[in-house]
Amino acid sequence: MLIVGVVVLLLLGGGGYLFMQSRTAKAGGAAAAAQTAPKTPEIYLPLDPAFVVNFQDQDSTRYLQVGVTVMTHDPNAVQAMKDSDPVIRNALVMLFSSQTYAGLSDTAGKQKLQAQALDAVRKIVADKTGKSDVDALYFTSFVMQ
């Protein structure tokens, strides 16, 4: 009886060991596959020339010059942005010219404007392609006068 108990215990231990090894191998293989899966590179598209708009600030006219570059991982989104360049430029000119000097004077205001500009570009690309594959929008220059 004691020998049967030891044999059963050894079989259970061996089975448990093999089960844990197979789970570890699968998890390691999945992690290795995820690490080796090719990630598409970032594609940057500068929207040239830089945007220059004027806006009112109490009694004086102010000027804003903004350089914009968008980033995506999808070549189709790049082509959609190139095809929709006039629409994107119009949306961003309207957005930039509706700003106030006080609203853009601090970092939070610039970040809010950046988020609004990204949303505007994403909406236009989504209308064109059916998905908004624009990952980021960067201000490459920002001058207020």
TrEMBL record:
Principal location: membrane
Where is this protein localized, as stated in its record? Cell inner membrane; Cell membrane
Membrane-spanning segments: none
Q: Which UniProt keywords apply?
A: Cell inner membrane, Cell membrane, Cell projection, Chemotaxis, Cilium, Flagellar rotation, Flagellum, Membrane, Transmembrane, Transmembrane helix
> Would the keyword Transmembrane helix be found if you checked this record's keyword annotation?
yes
Superkingdom assignment:
Bacteria
Q: Name one Pfam family in it.
A: FliL
Keyword Transferase among UniProt keywords: no
Membrane topology, record value: Single-pass membrane protein
InterPro entries, alphabetically? Answer: FliL (IPR005503)
Q: What does this protein do?
A: Controls the rotational direction of flagella during chemotaxis.
User: What is stated as this protein's family in its record?
Assistant: Belongs to the FliL family.
Q: Which protein is depicted?
A: Flagellar protein FliL
**Species in which this protein is naturally found:** Dyella mobilis
